[in-house]
Please model this.
Amino acid sequence: MELNQLAEVIRQKFPEALVEEKNKALVIKRESLLALAKFLKTSEFAFQNLHCVTAVDWKDKMELVYHLYSFRQKFMLTLKVFLTMQDLTVESLSGLWKSANWLERETFDLFGIQFLNHPDPRRILNPDEW
Model:
Protein backbone atom coordinates (compact mmCIF):
# COMPACT_ATOMS: atom_id res chain seq x y z
CA MET A 1 0.00 0.00 0.00
CA GLU A 2 1.15 3.52 -0.78
CA LEU A 3 0.22 6.70 1.06
CA ASN A 4 -1.28 8.26 -2.07
CA GLN A 5 -3.56 5.22 -2.53
CA LEU A 6 -4.84 5.54 1.02
CA ALA A 7 -5.25 9.30 0.57
CA GLU A 8 -7.40 8.71 -2.51
CA VAL A 9 -9.68 6.30 -0.62
CA ILE A 10 -10.02 8.86 2.17
CA ARG A 11 -10.81 11.62 -0.33
CA GLN A 12 -13.61 9.50 -1.74
CA LYS A 13 -15.09 8.43 1.61
CA PHE A 14 -14.42 11.64 3.55
CA PRO A 15 -14.12 14.45 1.00
CA GLU A 16 -14.06 17.13 3.69
CA ALA A 17 -11.48 15.44 5.94
CA LEU A 18 -8.19 15.50 4.09
CA VAL A 19 -6.33 18.78 3.98
CA GLU A 20 -3.12 17.59 2.32
CA GLU A 21 -0.43 14.97 2.03
CA LYS A 22 2.66 16.40 3.66
CA ASN A 23 6.02 14.80 4.44
CA LYS A 24 4.69 11.22 4.28
CA ALA A 25 1.73 12.14 6.47
CA LEU A 26 -1.92 12.95 5.99
CA VAL A 27 -3.05 16.28 7.41
CA ILE A 28 -6.71 16.11 8.33
CA LYS A 29 -9.30 18.45 9.80
CA ARG A 30 -9.93 18.20 13.51
CA GLU A 31 -13.67 17.74 12.96
CA SER A 32 -13.04 14.60 10.88
CA LEU A 33 -10.56 12.90 13.21
CA LEU A 34 -12.90 10.56 15.10
CA ALA A 35 -14.92 9.39 12.08
CA LEU A 36 -11.79 8.89 9.99
CA ALA A 37 -10.04 7.01 12.81
CA LYS A 38 -13.04 4.66 13.15
CA PHE A 39 -12.90 4.00 9.42
CA LEU A 40 -9.14 3.36 9.43
CA LYS A 41 -9.43 0.89 12.29
CA THR A 42 -12.44 -1.06 11.02
CA SER A 43 -11.92 -0.94 7.24
CA GLU A 44 -9.87 -3.32 5.11
CA PHE A 45 -6.80 -1.25 6.07
CA ALA A 46 -7.10 -2.48 9.68
CA PHE A 47 -4.98 0.03 11.54
CA GLN A 48 -5.21 -1.94 14.78
CA ASN A 49 -2.28 -0.28 16.51
CA LEU A 50 -2.01 3.30 17.73
CA HIS A 51 1.48 3.49 19.12
CA CYS A 52 2.16 7.21 19.38
CA VAL A 53 0.25 10.39 20.11
CA THR A 54 2.32 13.52 20.51
CA ALA A 55 2.38 17.16 19.51
CA VAL A 56 4.66 19.86 18.16
CA ASP A 57 4.34 23.41 19.46
CA TRP A 58 4.83 25.87 16.58
CA LYS A 59 4.15 28.88 18.86
CA ASP A 60 1.22 30.06 16.70
CA LYS A 61 -0.42 26.61 16.36
CA MET A 62 -0.18 23.09 17.73
CA GLU A 63 0.47 20.08 15.51
CA LEU A 64 -1.09 16.91 16.92
CA VAL A 65 0.55 13.76 15.56
CA TYR A 66 -0.78 10.18 15.54
CA HIS A 67 1.17 7.11 14.38
CA LEU A 68 -1.01 4.16 13.34
CA TYR A 69 0.17 0.77 12.16
CA SER A 70 -1.60 -1.88 10.10
CA PHE A 71 -0.16 -5.35 10.64
CA ARG A 72 -2.30 -6.65 7.78
CA GLN A 73 -0.95 -4.06 5.32
CA LYS A 74 2.48 -3.77 6.98
CA PHE A 75 2.07 -0.02 6.76
CA MET A 76 2.69 2.90 9.08
CA LEU A 77 0.41 5.92 8.79
CA THR A 78 1.03 9.33 10.29
CA LEU A 79 -2.00 11.54 10.80
CA LYS A 80 -1.61 15.20 11.68
CA VAL A 81 -4.20 17.63 12.98
CA PHE A 82 -3.42 21.31 13.38
CA LEU A 83 -5.03 23.14 16.30
CA THR A 84 -5.15 26.86 16.95
CA MET A 85 -3.69 28.10 20.22
CA GLN A 86 -7.13 29.51 21.04
CA ASP A 87 -8.79 26.07 20.85
CA LEU A 88 -6.62 23.16 21.94
CA THR A 89 -9.40 20.58 22.00
CA VAL A 90 -9.93 17.44 19.96
CA GLU A 91 -12.00 14.28 20.33
CA SER A 92 -10.36 11.43 22.23
CA LEU A 93 -9.51 8.24 20.37
CA SER A 94 -9.36 6.22 23.59
CA GLY A 95 -12.66 4.56 22.72
CA LEU A 96 -11.01 3.06 19.63
CA TRP A 97 -7.52 2.21 20.86
CA LYS A 98 -6.76 1.49 24.52
CA SER A 99 -3.24 2.85 24.03
CA ALA A 100 -4.73 6.30 23.42
CA ASN A 101 -5.69 6.53 27.08
CA TRP A 102 -2.19 7.13 28.43
CA LEU A 103 -0.80 8.63 25.21
CA GLU A 104 -3.46 11.35 25.22
CA ARG A 105 -2.90 11.98 28.94
CA GLU A 106 0.82 12.48 28.26
CA THR A 107 0.07 14.85 25.39
CA PHE A 108 -2.37 16.80 27.57
CA ASP A 109 0.17 16.99 30.37
CA LEU A 110 3.05 18.16 28.17
CA PHE A 111 1.23 20.34 25.60
CA GLY A 112 -2.11 21.30 27.16
CA ILE A 113 -4.23 19.69 24.44
CA GLN A 114 -7.56 18.58 25.89
CA PHE A 115 -9.07 15.36 24.58
CA LEU A 116 -12.83 15.59 24.70
CA ASN A 117 -14.68 12.57 26.12
CA HIS A 118 -11.48 11.06 27.51
CA PRO A 119 -12.35 8.58 30.30
CA ASP A 120 -9.58 9.73 32.68
CA PRO A 121 -8.14 13.17 31.83
CA ARG A 122 -5.87 13.41 34.87
CA ARG A 123 -2.25 14.48 34.61
CA ILE A 124 0.09 11.54 34.18
CA LEU A 125 3.59 13.06 34.38
CA ASN A 126 3.51 16.42 36.13
CA PRO A 127 2.10 17.36 39.53
CA ASP A 128 -1.49 18.65 39.57
CA GLU A 129 -0.40 22.22 40.33
CA TRP A 130 1.90 22.38 37.27
User: Anything to note?
Assistant: Helices lie at 3-13, 33-42, 100-111. The beta strands are 18-22, 25-28, 49-57, 61-70, 75-84, 89-91, 114-116. The longest strand covers residues 61-70. Residues 100-111 form the longest helix (12 residues).
